[in-house]
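Protein modeling request. Please complete all fields; requests missing the sequence field cannot be processed.
Requester role: graduate student
Desired output: 3D structure, token encoding
Chains: 1
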Amino acid sequence: MGKNATLKKQRKAERNERPVAVESKLPEAPTELIIDRYSWVHGALICALTFILSIFLIESEDIFSNIVTGEYLWKHRSIPALDPFSFTGPYPWLLNRPLPSLVFYGVHSLGGLPAIQVFCGCILGLTYALFYEIWGRRTQQRFLCFVMTSLLVMASCYWFQTRIYVFAYLYVVVALFLVTSRNPRAMLWMIPLQVLWINSHPSAILGVFFTGLWWLDRAFTQRKFDRFSSLILFGVFSANIISPMGSKGYAKFIEELFSPHPSRSNIFEWFSPFSATVSAQHLAWWYYGACAVMAVGAALVFVRFGSLGVPRVALGITAALFIMSTGCARHIPLFYFALTSALIMSATRWREESSKVWPRGFQLAWLLAVIMVAIKVIALGYPNGQTRRTFAFGIDSRKFPERAIQIIKSAKLEGNVFSDYDTGSYFLYRMFPDYKVYIDGARLDEVYGEEGFMHYMRLGNDLQILKTDIEKFDIRAFIVPLPPTESEIVVVHRFLSSDPGWKLAYFDDVNMLYVRREEAEKRNIPTYAFLNPFASIDAVMKKNPDASAGFERDFKQGDVVNPQSIAFLILKQGYFSLRGWQDKAQEVIETMRGLCAQKNPSPACAQVSRRFGAA
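Delivered output (615 residues):
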């Protein structure tokens, strides 16, 4: 009995000790964020916010070229050596985006352009949710990562478009996770990632660069060049050969980096964010603000704790992407990924030292702020240059020449049609294989190169080159922007509007369609006798005293073809004022004001506001 009593006392003592062990852990529980148990809500909110900010009318022409490319690759099961889409060639075709082109074509086949918008929104949502999940798990500071990732989303929202760089963003996030991982074997995944990257987007050179920085960091830390890291670097470097570009890809990358390509000085998204033009159109104040936050936050953490708590490789990547983004605005989102990662790691260092908990009220206030921003964007859109993006599916009709293309297709014009740099991809999407393009802006680097692009730029500055190309390529129609936004198009406008061999068949607030006179007569295409946005009605009336009847016919034609064109209504108001019909002129002004009140702000509406005042 004595022995049993002793055993019972020991067991009782053990049972009594267990609650004490549990209680000893209780004080640690409050250090976990209150909302951490609902971390999946954070990821869902970030994904939803990103998705909402990405579903806007398609305004980028690149997606149309990708769809046509994917269709061609799928149907022919091969990559041609020469570009099959341009009538100005033959140009060698160095394809560098086969994977997303095939994916976009497949998605488009299932649901058209809305399906592609949803698909890109999902890829972007997945990217930013993955960014949050990676750093949330790594730092165990879920709410901090949610706040920082939400800021990252709102700072980058201008770049949420239906373009192939949505794949590049996903690859950059995964690459940042791999190169900053504490487990070196995680870098084995960089090799298959690089294979996907090199077949998706020209930014694949970043994969080699990130791996190179990681390799140097390990060599610096271990004071030796170990075999494992060298094999990883060699594998990532070699993975670039598994693409249509093959070994030529490296030469192309070097050319892109060091050659003063004319696109760098003529295409605004390649400009520096310190350019006034880019600052207005790319929300560059986010860029400046992010740089200031990084500098102040890093300084505070460093002064307080004597270190940033950020791996050297992450600091190197952040610095490199910062330098890239100062030279080119389209690199800003890549810098944001590295910057936000560094800020999260620095803030985590501060949180670990301070041991403070975010108050529940602060957490709920931030969630409410994110929801309010999302509602505002859905209801009002957000600015993009002189227009505002709107939450909707489809294309932005203010940019693409849909009506002009319908006229060409219905009339079955023979010969070739000139479309400018910005509309070539859409024209290709709507008209290939019946028609080819003069130039496709989405494939500038992989097809036309410096020589082809410079020839296009010289087209409008040299009348002889323009006339030579018209005869050489049998150009029967021109689709040119209105108003002319590029210097080379202004000369084309002047020639077409003054040469009697060409007639204006259509114009709206975005584009103009000129057709050869004999082709218009042969195909029974209605044309304007006197009406032209570049011709003064007063000057035409003085030169042709009997032009009134012609103007009346032109206005009747415009009322049928496009009665809601602000450019057309401005001419109509000017004609009525010249004739002394003030009541009719005022009626047209009220019509324009009503249209501008219904539509999003545009350059045409801005002109109405300047000349006639707002509604």
